[in-house]
Write a structure and sequence with these properties.
This protein has 256 residues and is α/β, with parallel strands linked by helices. 30% of the residues lie in helices and 32% in strands. A 6-stranded mixed sheet has the order 6-7-8-3-9-10, sandwiched between helices. A 4-stranded antiparallel sheet has the order 2-1-4-5, with helices on one face. Strands 11-12 form a two-stranded antiparallel sheet.
Length: 256
Amino acid sequence: MIALNLKNLSVRLGGKTVLDGITATLAGGEIVSVIGQNGSGKTTFLKAIAGICAHHGVVEVKDGEKTLSAKVIRYMPQLSTVTSRLTVFEMVLLGLEGELGWRVDQATFDRVDRMLHLLEIDHLAHTSVASLSGGQKQLVFLAQAFVSDPKVLLLDEPTSALDLRYQLVVMNAIGRYTQACGAVTLVVMHDLLNAARFSQKVLLLDRAKVLALDTPAKVFDQERLESVYGVKVSVEASKAGFLNVIPIEPSSTHHD
């Protein structure tokens, strides 16, 4: 089974401690939502794991007793403005850039094609990415991330700015990949409802440390959330069986 081991992971930026000695083991086959206030270090946490942010400590990916290379880690940043003239097929193909040679063989084309079908965007294969809707673009970049078969998937707010339908489509796609490949998937989330619904675990960052790492039901404690977010909340179960975190009013005793 795949596992991501973090040992004393620390980051300092501009003289400020952003992450302070984080130690945790995250199991494959689970989505872990990373939550916390703005500025709590969520994006930095993903970047440190991906190796694109200077850090101290150990990031280790294990498959049983075998240690895997950092190539099995894939980071997908927040969706930004896309002006590329590349087609959907070409954009997903770039996800294999480390494996591509001067010629692209049939097996590689088939690999990309299977991923487009998996995410149900095969009909867009020859369409310019820049012309797509936000939800369609997000599916394209997920396909680009998935096609290299990563064992650790790091997604920074993949549902931001998406409508309700595409939030479900995107999170369901992430869930299918995570379970099918046994990947460790970390997803930065601001929407606590989506975090509760789609995650097996929630990692709550506060003041550069992990304040809690457990199931949504255990992490979404009313007193803890009120302390971290500075707002009075009600934590309730919906008729569909999902947890709802309902903000009521700002807390008068909270201090940043």
